[in-house]
Amino acid sequence: MRAAVLVAVSLCALVPLVHGYCFQSLLKKGARYCQDLTDKNWHAVGSTWTNSKCIKCSCDTSSMDCCDSMGKVIVSYPKYCAVEYDYTTCTYKVVKKKGYKGPCPHGAVG
Prior knowledge:
By secondary structure, the chain is mainly beta. Helices cover 12% and strands 40% of the residues. It has one helix and ten strands; from the N terminus they run αββββββββββ. The relative contact order is 0.17.
């Protein structure tokens, strides 16, 4: 019973660490452009792009489909470490917080 409670509490703690997602926006009939919801730039039907928050989108005649391209699930890291996102390269790394000299082990899925 104790093990089941420990597993349940551990899984609940992971929920805020899940960052991957996708979404779809439907276009009006006859639309020739999609507007990026993050950067507010317009993109022609048939195009694909990655915006400033590393969300990859495609625009077709009926919808704009977007997914987070940094969709990693960071499952564990010590409290003396932090996750740093680089939106220029669409990557992340787990780094030591200021003043800590040891390693920063972590686990990730995705």
